[in-house]
Amino acid sequence: MKSATFLSPVFELGPGSVENKYYFDVDFPRGHIAIKNFNAEVVDDQGNPVPLHETYLHHWVMSRYYQRDDENGTAQSKEHVFARNSGICQGNALGQYFGLGSETRRTATHVPDPYGIEVGNPPAGFQEKWMLNEKWMLNVHAIDTRGAEDRLGCTECRCDLYNVTVDEYGRPLRPDYKGGLHCCYDHTQCRTAQGFHGTRRKLFLRYTVVWLDWNISSIIPVKIYIFDVTDTWKRPVNDSIEPLAAHDCRFEYEIEACSSNIEAHGSCIDTKKISLSLPDGGYVIYGVGHQHSGGLGSNLYRQDGRLICSSVPTYGKGKEAGNEAGYIVGMSTCYPQPGSVKIADGETLVLESNYSSSQGHTGVMGLFYILVADHLPSSLPYSRSPVQNFSS
C-alpha cells in the first residue's frame, strides 16, 4: 500500500465567521488506483489539530470530475463534468466519493481486502469526450465558534443567530425556515458574545489517502451508495404504467422539541423513516451513518425487516481534538462477514434516523453510506500489505 498526506488551500476564519469553499484540482494520488482509506481533519498553520469547539467542521466532501483538454492539451477550466458515485440521489445531490463531518477523526473508513474504490479509469463514454484528465474537487464547510453567543445554535446554522433572511443566491427564505445550510453559507457571520475579540487565523484541511495500484486479478471494485433520509421518493403502485419517481434528496431537516409530558416519560426521540430502492444490488462490505449533534443513531434495514447495519454516534467528553464534549466525534461502522449481506436488484430498503428531541434542532442530517461489491473473492482475502508513505 501507499500513503500520502496533503493540505487543502488555506482558509481564514475569525470568531463567528463561516467558510464554505470549493477547491478544484486539489492534490490527490494519480493513476489507476484502488482507494483503501481516506481520513481528514482541520489543522492550524503549525499543523496542530483544531478542536470542534473552536472550528466546527460542518462537512467536507471530495468529488471526482473530468476536465476537457483542447487539441494542444491545454486545460479548459470551465469545461468539466462530475463523475458521480453510484448513489440514487438525483441532480447534484450527494455525488461525492468521500465526505464526513465532525465525526471524521474517529470514524473508520478502511475498505477491507480484497476490495477497493476504483479511480483513475474514466466511466463509460468519458474517455473519448474528456480525454482522461481526471481531477478532484474538495468542499470544506467550517464555522468558527470562538466566542459564540450560542455555540450549538451556530453549528446548527440557526437563521436568527446569523441575521439571514435570504439564501446565498439572494432568494428569500421560507417563513418557516429556522435554520440550516441556507443560513450559514460562505462569508456569513454567527453572533458572538458582546465584547469578545479574537484574531483571524489560517487553517487547512489535512487529508491522508491510502491506496494500491490497480490490479484486476487481486482487487474487487466496490460501488459507493449514499442514502438520505430526506429523500422524497415513493415507489409507484404500478411500475409498468406510472412514471419513475425522482429521488429528490433534501439533505437536512428539522427536529421539533417534544412536549414536557413526553419528556417526563423519557421518550423524547424523533424517528424519521423512508423506503428506497436500490436498482443494482450486491454484497455489502461496509456501512456508516452521518448525523449531527443530538443524533442517536441510524439503521438500514432490508425489505424483510432484517438489519443491514446500525451506526451509532460517539460523543466526546473532554476538550482535546477528537474528544470534544457535546460533539459527535465518531460514528460506528459495519463490516459484514463476506457474503453475509446480499441486496437483491431492485430491493426496497428502509433507512431510519433517530434524534433526541428533548430540545429542537435545525439543519440536521440523516445520511447513510454503504460500499457494495458485485461479487465475492474466489478465495480468502490476501493479507494486508505494508503502507508506503509519500510526501505531499
Describe this structure in words.
The structure is a single chain. It is built from 4 helices and 24 strands. The radius of gyration is 21 Å and the shape is globular. The strands form 5 sheets. Strands 1, 2, 4, 8, 10, 11, 14, 19, 20, 23 and 24 form an 11-stranded mixed beta sheet that branches. Strands 3, 5, 6, 7 and 9 form a 5-stranded antiparallel beta sheet that branches. It has one domain. A hairpin with a 5-residue loop joins strand 5 and strand 6. The model has no long low-confidence stretch (mean pLDDT 90). The relative contact order is 0.22. This is Stress up-regulated Nod 19 protein. InterPro entries: Stress_up-reg_Nod19 (IPR011692). It holds the Pfam family SURNod19.
What is the count of β-strands? 24
Arithmetic mean of pLDDT: 90
Rounded radius of gyration (Å):
21 Å
> Can you tell me the overall shape?
globular
Largest sheet: 11 strands, mixed
Distance between the ends: 16 Å
Count of discrete structural domains? 1
Strand fraction equals 35-45%
Order of helices and strands: EEEEEEEEHEHHEEEHEEEEEEEEEEEE
Could you list the spans in which at least 5 consecutive residues all have pLDDT below 50? none
Protein name: Stress up-regulated Nod 19 protein
Pfam families: SURNod19 (PF07712)
Organism: Punica granatum (Pomegranate)
InterPro entries: Stress_up-reg_Nod19
Q: Could you outline the blueprint of secondary structure elements for this entry?
A:
Blueprint: E1 2-7, E2 11-13, E3 18-24, E4 33-44, E5 55-69, E6 75-83, E7 98-100, E8 115-119, H1 126-130, E9 134-144, H2 151-155, H3 159-162, E10 201-213, E11 220-228, E12 253-255, H4 260-264, E13 269-277, E14 282-291, E15 295-301, E16 307-311, E17 313-315, E18 328-331, E19 333-334, E20 342-343, E21 348-356, E22 361-364, E23 366-373, E24 388-390
Parallel strand pairs: 1-24, 8-11
Antiparallel strand pairs: 1-10, 2-10, 3-9, 4-8, 4-10, 5-6, 5-7, 5-9, 11-23, 12-22, 13-21, 14-19, 14-20, 14-23, 15-16, 15-21, 17-18
